[in-house]
Structure formats: structure tokens, C-alpha cells
Amino acid sequence: MNTATTVAPLATQDADALVAAAQGAAAAAGVHVSVTVLDAGGHLLAFRRDDRAVLISGETSTRKAYTALQLNAPTADLVDAVQPGGLFHTLPTALDRPLLFIAGGVPVHRDGRLIGAIGVGGGAPEQDHGFATAALETLA
């Protein structure tokens, strides 16, 4: 008997809601950001860069989302792991992948399953993490 439960994937409507919520949190703090949402396969579902966000924030938000997705962990929790002597010290240079170990990327789960990730760039790392986690709270 198959007891597997079907979990709804991250839909574009979900991605749009995450982007709007993260941008709203950032705007309330007076910070200009870029927000990226990826599905479970790492494919882009939504992206938005505030007109006044620094240009590199588009790239950092995407890399943060990708890193959170691939490692199924908030990037804020991984910063120490890539420092000299850390568990993942060589990971950023060992793979030809766009990993970025700066706070602001958070995996998205539904019913305990990984369904995607959100990345925010443009503010201080702690701010970006806060905007991403605030966005997750709005996802039903």
C-alpha cells in the first residue's frame, strides 16, 4: 500500500505572494531589495528588483535562494560552516555552482517537504534574512 502524501508544489501565485511580502517588509524598513523565488528543481518562479536596489542584489538574491534550496537550510545557518575549519569550508570553490553563503536565503517547505526557496539581497545580511522569513510567514 502506498502511503505517500502528495504535497502541492510551489506555484507562481505562491511565488508572487512571497515576492510581494518580502518587498513589503523591506519597504517598511526603508531597504531596497531584490527577491528571487525558485521551485524545488531550482527553476526561477519569480524575481523582482526594486528600482533603487543595488544591481548586484539581483545576483545575490538568486544565489542565496539556490544555496538554501540545495542545502535545505537557511543561508544564515551556513555562514560559519564555510569558514576555515568549517564543515563546508571548501564547498564554495569545489563546485561549479552559484552558491552564496550570506544570510538571506531560506528554503520553503510545505507539509514538511522542500518545495522551493526564497532569496533576498540588497540589505544587510541580517535584514535580508528577516525579510525572507517574514515572507514565509505569509505563505499558506
Q: What sequence of helices (H) and strands (E) makes up the elements?
A: HEEHHEEH
CATH top level assignment: Alpha Beta
Number of helices: 4
What is the makeup of the main sheet? 4 strands, antiparallel
Number of strands: 4
* CATH homology superfamily: Haem-degrading domain
Q: What share of residues is helical?
A: 25-40%
Average pLDDT level: 92
Describe the structure.
This protein has helices at 12-28, 56-71, 91-94, 125-136, and strands at residues 34-39, 44-49, 105-110, 113-121. It is α+β, with helices and mostly antiparallel strands. It has one domain (12-136): Beta-Lactamase (2-Layer Sandwich). It has a 4-stranded antiparallel beta sheet. A hairpin with a 2-residue loop joins strand 3 (105-110) and strand 4 (113-121). The radius of gyration is 15 Å and the shape is globular. The model has no long low-confidence stretch (mean pLDDT 92).
